[in-house]
Amino acid sequence: MREHDIDKHLISNIEIPDAMRESLIQDVKSGKRTKDIRFRYSTTLMALCVIGVLVISGSSASAAYISYKNRVENMPQEEQQEYVEELENDTYSAVDESMTRSLTRSEKERLAVLQNSYYKDGVFPEENMAFLETLSELKPDMLAYVEEDNKIHFPEGEMTDEQLLQYIDHEAKYMHTIEENDEQTNAEDESADQETKALDEQDNVITYDVSAEDEETLKQKSKELINKIYGEEVDDSWNFDVYGMDWSESDEFDEASNLYEINWYESDAPNAKTFQITIPKNSDGTFIINRYGMEVFADCDDFTWKEAQEYLPQGEETVKTFVKEKFGLGEPDRIEYGGAENVDGESVECAWIPFKLYYGDDYVVVHWLISTNEVNSVMSKSLIKVD
Description:
Helices cover 39% and strands 18% of the residues. Helix 5 crosses helix 6. Mean pLDDT is 78; it is low at 1-60. It is built from eleven helices and 13 strands. The longest helix is centred in the middle third of the chain and has 28 residues, at 161-188.
């Protein structure tokens, strides 16, 4: 086992078309400014998300979803202005920079449950989160946004469920404000509008809806893969979408780039538990399966890269056993692993280690969660085939 320089940059390890990679890198760099609000929640989540091609997809509109949309779209004028001012003050690239402390493990676990209740069942807080102008107004047990330092202040002790719901509600309204601002900016900026139109035209060429027959086949196949890889079940209470992408319609790519993108997500919550699967149409294409969301990472601790390396032997044995049991692959010729750096090459804390297992000229990339000793994502070109 050895470290290889090329593996230090996670995004460089992923053999996807350059256009997709560049788009994903820009999304990650823009942090919470991206339309996909799941990028906001943690460095770990952001990095794992870029393995696949993320989309926000439509789902049938439940009564709870309509209720949530009405709530964020029909805020009183005074409340809307508070969020506009927060947005104008916001210079952070990640959500944890804008908070006075990290969530505890218990708070993360309860937040994951309460977010589903908020978006899926229409369970809202009894009161709104407080907006304060100065730090002098803040009390130790308060949850509040303070304009003076532009931070969300958490209470010193464990938050109650009501406070967690207030925080969830705040984030939903804040993200709605961001989306409204983006739409207004694009409408006013003619050049940005033209760029958007150009991207839309390209998407119309390469992206298409699959037939009802293919959708049902891929739905069942993806259920089986989720159960095989993670030992978990998804059912029709989850949101499901699938679409095809024929990158070969663009002059830059060949047929090996064509794929089906499949998403299962538990609710409309921004960081709900999600399974994402990329199934190649061609035997030379890339297979990817990935799992993310607050619930997935609630039990994960962050490590410095120096600390993480102490767990390398355990991780190596786990991933070798995993690929043997799940895919019938034997002892790899060699294993390389990646260091903890973000897309700009800066050192970051990490909750996982990417292992690259070589079999001749082909390889499998496995992301291993250190705290839970679990495999969270798998990517392979050629070695893993899906019938």
